[in-house]
Known about the structure:
By secondary structure, this protein is mainly alpha-helical. It has a two-stranded parallel ribbon with strand order 1-2. It has one domain (about 1-130): Four Helix Bundle (Hemerythrin (Met), subunit A) (Up-down Bundle). It has helices spanning about 1-15, 20-50, 50-75, 80-100, 105-120, 125-130; strands spanning about 20, 130. It contains six helices and two strands. The protein is about 85% helix and about 5% strand.
Amino acid sequence: MIVKSVLAMILTAGLATGAVTAAERAAHIMRMDDIDAARYDIEDGAAAKSAEQVQKGTTAVGDLLRAERAYFVKGGADDATAALDKTVGILRDIDAAAKAGDFTTVSARYADLQASCTACHDLKADDRIKVEG
Ligand code: HEC
């Protein structure tokens, strides 16, 4: 009984540390590059006052970030997962502002979006998420 619970504790600790496969790590880095490219539709759309272009960017970045969530959850990086959810919230604000034709808010929240990217990078989650195999 005691052996079993000690074993369970060790296993739980192992899971909490988090590990991903090499393929998952590679897919994550590729998604980040795609996010980096897609965000320019938000920036350029704001300058051109094009709701359509801004929303093309928010949709693409949002979809990619939602796909990224599983990576950070599996990696056990709770701080990064929380940072990701915050970033998705900013994207929603940008999307709503674009829909309303409020490009002042789009630009202001775009600055917040960039700060949110940096804030997550500063957490250095990949230094903690192990790659197995
Ligand atoms: C949930 C956390 C998180 C968020 C939010 C996030 N990133 Fe990343 N990003 C990472 C991690 C982790 C890496 C791996 C390298 C590192 O640790 O800096 C990375 C790497 C990158 C890279 C380098 C990819 C390569 O080829 O090496 C780019 C570019 C990038 N992110 C752009 C962005 C942009 C733009 C945003 C915001 C729209 C963003 N990221 C939001 C966590 C995040």
